Amino acid sequence: MIATAWRVIGVGFSLLVLLTAGLLYGVDPQQERFGGVFLSRDVYLSYGVRTDDLTVFMLAIVGVVSLCVQVYSIAYVHERVASYTALVTLFTASMVTVVVSDSLFLLLIGWELMGACSYLLIGHYWERRDARSGAMKAFLMTRLGDVGFLFGIFVLGLGYKTFTLSELGDRQISPGLLTTGTLLILVGIVGKSAQVPLQTWLPDAMPGPSPVSALIHAATMVAAGVFLIARLYDVFAAAETTFTVLAVIACVTMLFAAFCAMAAVEVKRVLAWSTVSQLAIMFAGLSLGTHEGRHAALFHLLTHAAFKGLLFLCAGVLLHQVGSAAFVVLRRYTRRGALRKRMPVTFITMTIGLAALAGVPGFAGFFSKDSVIEAAWEHARDGSTIGWVVLVSVCLTAALTAFYCVRLWLWVFFRTPALAGALGAFEDDDPMADLEEPDTAKLRDGSWLMLAPLVLLAVGAIGLGYTDGVHLKWPIALVTTVLGLFGALPAYSLWQRGADPRPVVLEREFGVDSAYQRVFAVPVQWLAKLAVGGDRDVIGGYVRGAGRAGVLASAGFRRLQTGNVQTYLTAAVIGAVALAILAGVIGS
After folding, report:
1. Which UniProt keywords are given for this protein, alphabetically ordered (predicted)?
2. Are 283 and 226 spatial neighbours (Cβ–Cβ below 8 Å)?
């Protein structure tokens, strides 16, 4: 009964967010303040909310994706439902707080609540070791970035003499403070949105429930960084150094994550690295510092919310039916194309999601990706080095994205011709050959509560590309289509030959985790041991020595208390004689 009540509350809140976005659509931009305190004679801290086009845009994304996740979770989550629904609802409310806030400190409250909720949701299956470690890793790495975020809030707020978002760009601030403040804010954004060098937490957060992954990757948390830069775009645009740093981080991240996705062997891990890469494309668009770049980044954020939410929910259906999202397990079903035949709705919707992610012409991702490339091309033609770097990086990433999307699609849903023709030889090399042949008769699509959100998001993954109007530049569209083919054809060739080579450097994701372990974790462990040893052996030694000295002194004084009067008189006489002798010696 309690679980049902929480589910109703969760779905109701998601509908409320969506309804709020609809009611605010077309309303003139305005700000409302409530409460406040003077931090100094010139600085006034107030809490306020803001309504404008960007607010409505983000509320619509959060509302739709959250509603799909809440409905989907009714059929998906069967353990600790009450706590799960409460946390998802609070998670959504935290993102709404970030979206509507017009105060840096109110935004910080929502920002930190998202981090706390993500820790608890990623670790929902706390009995699993990988879930616990993934939750802890996400918490520590995002908190590390949030330290810079907090200092950035103080630098900008005190520099502008206001903590109100809508007033930051209207006042004067020294260039040094502006650059310092925006760079510190960028540190928090890098941590929250899993960009290099704080990117490794997001793939390791995959042991959490698939609906949680969809919510984190599509509409909340990692998308909050893109939203915040778009909200403070005038402030960031005035700090050219910050945008240069952002462009470098974004270009490195999109290529790094795309290469990692090419070698990943778990469906959700491929999608996680894909999220890191696609977010970097959005940041690259923002780093151009132009209106076209900002518009393209937000357009890609919109389409990404649809197809990435769809893909994670489809992965959840696979997990629900197969029990594992690893290729090595799914392969046993795909020898006969069982997943495609027994789960047609999941197959069709996931195909749509992967097509949108890969940028297949006609799908939403094609239009939004091309808008970023077009903005970079226009900026590059003006002689901007950043424009050229972004242009080349996004084009290369588009080809790599097509490769891992086709690879994922073929290996999950189709039997490999080479393996089907030599099944006996494959059985000899198959590490799972001794397992019983899976019962494909038990495979089926999920309930309508799971399929309805898939269909809705699949419609968005196609139709949202046309919401901005079709303003294609055919040369750019032709180039990106050719790049997609260059990425897809090698993936198809490898699949047809039954080969799935994964270079060691890619399979280990460039060894970043092990490098972090050696450079950061090991020294911290040694320092911790040193601190414990110093506390135990040095400080504790002094404390224990003082205690023992007191015990020995008290024991000595206790021995003097014999209770014999003659002994006391003798000691008194001896003392008096000794004092007399001492006085005589001193007097002479």
Report:
1. Membrane, Transmembrane, Transmembrane helix
2. yes
Q: Name the one residue in this structure whose structure tokens are 């030694």.
A: 541
Residue 223, SS3 per DSSP: helix
Q: How far apart are CA 317 and CA 509, in angstroms?
A: 27
> Whose structure tokens read 């004092």?
579
- Per-residue pLDDT of the chain (588 residues), as tens digits, is 667 777 778 888 888 898 889 888 888 888 887 766 666 667 767 788 999 999 999 999 999 999 999 999 999 888 889 899 999 999 999 999 999 999 999 999 999 999 999 999 999 998 888 899 999 999 999 999 999 999 999 999 989 888 889 888 777 889 999 999 999 999 999 999 999 999 999 999 988 899 999 999 988 899 999 999 999 999 999 999 999 999 999 999 999 999 999 988 888 999 999 999 999 999 999 999 999 999 999 999 999 999 999 999 999 998 877 765 555 555 555 555 677 888 899 999 999 999 999 999 999 999 999 999 999 999 999 888 999 999 999 999 999 999 999 999 998 888 766 655 444 443 444 444 444 445 566 777 878 999 999 999 999 999 998 887 667 788 899 999 999 999 999 999 988 887 766 665 576 777 788 888 888 888 888 888 888 888 887 888 788 888 888 888 887 777 767 677 777 777 778 888 888 888 777 766
Q: How far apart are CA 141 and CA 202, in angstroms?
A: 10
Nearest CA among 220, 250, 200, 260 for reference residue 90 = 220
